[in-house]
Amino acid sequence: MYVGAFYGGKDGSGGPAAQAAARDPRIHCAANGQEPGSGSTAQQNAMSYWITDFERSCSHVQIAYNPVGSTAGVAQFLRGATAFGGTDSPVKPEDATPAPGVCPGGRVINLPMVGGPIAIGYNLPGVDDLVLDAKTLAKIFDLKITTWDDPAIRHLNPRAQLPSLPIQPVHRADGSGTSQNFQAYLAGAVPGFWVHPAEKAWQGRGGNAADGSDGVASTVTSTVGAIGYFELSFASRLHIATVRIDTGASAPVAATTKSASAGIAAAKTVGKNKDLTLKFDYQTSADGTYPIVLVTYESVCDKGNQKETLPALKSFLSYAAGEAGQEKLPDVHYAPLPAGVASHVREVIRTLS
Questions:
Q1: How far is CA 245 from CA 107, 194, 250, 266, in A?
Q2: How many helices and strands, by DSSP H and E, does the chain display?
Q3: Residue pLDDT, tens place only, 17-71
Q4: Cα–Cα distance between 337 and 270 in angstroms, integer?
Q5: CB–CB of 124/241 below 8 Å?
Q6: Strand pairing of 84-87 and 33-39?
Q7: Who's near 53: CB < 8 A, 6+ residues apart?
Q8: Among residues 55, 220, 292, 346, which is most buried (max CB within 10 A)?
Q9: 3-class SS of residue 35
Q10: What is the DSSP letter of 336?
């Protein structure tokens, strides 16, 4: 289902009330334009907020976003169906081969736009606080720990009344940057315990599958004994209990926008030229730093963008990476980009052609 107005959406963006609202002077609007994008479900709640907020100030510009998942969104962008693709894992240079006529004279680059924790949600009646570590999570999602009263879980939760109940791990059925980031954490935090590659397709053994972060979250809410991974906004909206992660810090770390921002701030930029791909430290034990984080990127052409959509693209992305777009992300359970990263993103957006 599209988020936005020009595909006929009724989510509140671009409506009369939004258009009549006072214009935010920090937002520089294109004169007009329609801007389609698609991809990551991780950012769909942030994108819904952004579109509504942006179109309050820029009523002559219409943005639509289709949360079809990272793999499908990038594929649509590479064949020219959209102006940008949202993905929770950066498009690698060897995979960034656009169709003829897409990005002529340029190349695909990744621009980090919004961050947040990958929350580990669970459905375990009578257990309101649950602590797990990377090793135990790896074994759970690879079906090597199969009951909630397993000694490894009891050791981490000595005061909890853990039932002798089968664990029902839930993963993404579709290609997903959230899956890739979660598997990268499992592989990077405790090397040797998660032996599968960090791909967008789920690599672990068995378990239940659901489409999209919303599908995984809904399956967890409806399945006693379930555990799954999704963005914090889904856990908050559906009131799903989330795991605190034992990282070796002085206390287990909960998934919050503040603790995720600390994790993102420790990342290093490893992309070249205008590409702003980040690399995370999954083995951090710093207090208050949540290690299972992701950044959603907007994949765009650095050159060769369509003249009809370029002004709207630059206007909207500049807003999203700017103060107006970032400052209220915690209100919708996302983590703003570190100030230095956001500034660099805006610099690159200004050069898009």
A1: 39, 17, 11, 17
A2: 12, 14
A3: 344 456 888 999 999 999 999 999 889 999 999 999 999 999 999 999 999 998 9
A4: 16
A5: yes
A6: parallel
A7: 24, 324, 325, 328
A8: 220
A9: strand
A10: P
